[in-house]
Amino acid sequence: MLPSLDSATPPTPAQAAAAQAAGIKMWCVYLATKPGVGLLRPWTNAEIEVVRVINPRPIAFYSGWDDPVAIKAAATRLNLRPCLDDESGIRPEGPWVQPNLDAVGGGLYGTSGVHVGRRAGFHIAAWYIANDPGRTWPTNWPTPAAPCGWQWRNSHNEFGVTVDRSWLDDWFGGATMTLSQKYDAVIKAFAAVGLDIVDLKAFLTARTPAVTQDLDYWANQIADDGHNVADVTAKIILDSRTSGNTGKAPDPWKAAPTTVPSGTKLTVTVD
Predict the structure, then answer these.
(1) Which of 97, 86, 89 is CA-nearest to residue 62?
(2) Where are the domains of the chain?
(3) What CATH homologous superfamily does 2-172 map to?
């Protein structure tokens, strides 16, 4: 898991360096492409650069009133992970949310009801509790089939800045993922294409050779820091849709059988 901070006020280079030295693995930023969208304080490009020492691809919270096409373009240009800040104090809930997420292709932040039935590249729970949960998602919330984070502590002071604190999955970069964590990422990816996650867990536990081989194939495609899980997920989706094998990994040692038309004459030379 990765400890993460976010703040309306950007840190100074010295504060960012202190956070990195203390083990912080993400400092989230605030992104806007036009004025008057309800964010407390959007960051400048120069301020965003300061926190890249902590994570080269920061999460960028944006408003539902902003232009999703412009947000996607800005996030791509600046190498950010866009995340819709779905708070009623910014823009009231409504049918606009899912089209916005689809257009931007980023994450979703909000309370429990915000995440129900919503598709996003990642999900960050907003639920403040008294003690550190040591988890990236509340146990009593349905877990999304995507990388997760949990903002569990709201405004307080760290490193001289008023911040919120979160736990994030290793997918966001930082600590090296274990094989078990890679398996979990693969299982989430399979779940994202509609496969029964309960059955997959049972197969994994039973170590059925054929299924384990498939899971090993996909797990081994994931980088040690997990930065390409989204790409692996996309490949699983593409493979399951085009081959009809519901996510089964291709066997690199087997070529597709060649069909020879009836009546073809073959000439064989034997030395």
Answers:
(1) 86
(2) 2-172, 179-243
(3) Glycosidases (3.20.20.80)
Cα gap 185→148, rounded to integer Å: 11
Q: Please give the structure tokens belonging to residue 130.
A: 């008294």
Are 145 and 137 contacting, i.e. CB atoms less than 8 angstroms apart?
A: no
CA dist., res. 122 & res. 177, Å (int): 17
Say whether pTM exceeds 0.85. Answer: no
Q: How far apart are CA 47 and CA 132, in angstroms?
A: 29
Name the strand (E) or helix (H) holding 267. Answer: none
Q: Report d(CA 48, CA 122) in Å as an integer.
A: 21
Q: What gap in Å lies between CA 30 and CA 129, rounded to an integer?
A: 23
Contact 3, 167 (CB under 8 A): yes
Q: What is the pLDDT of residues 119-158, one digit of tens each?
A: 999 999 999 999 999 999 999 999 998 899 999 999 999 9
The answer to whether 122 touches 151, Cβ cutoff 8 Å, is no
First-to-last alpha carbon distance for the chain, in angstroms, is 63
Q: How far apart are alpha carbons 13 and 48 in whole angstroms?
A: 11
Write down the residue that tokens 């960012």 correspond to: 16
State how far the Cα of 187 lies from the Cα of 172, in Å rounded to an integer.
Answer: 17
Residue 9: burial class (beta carbons within 10 Å; 0-12, 13-18, 19+): middle
Tally: H helices and E strands in the chain: 9, 8
118 has a pLDDT exceeding 60: yes
Query: Which residues are paired to 81 by β-bridges?
Result: 59
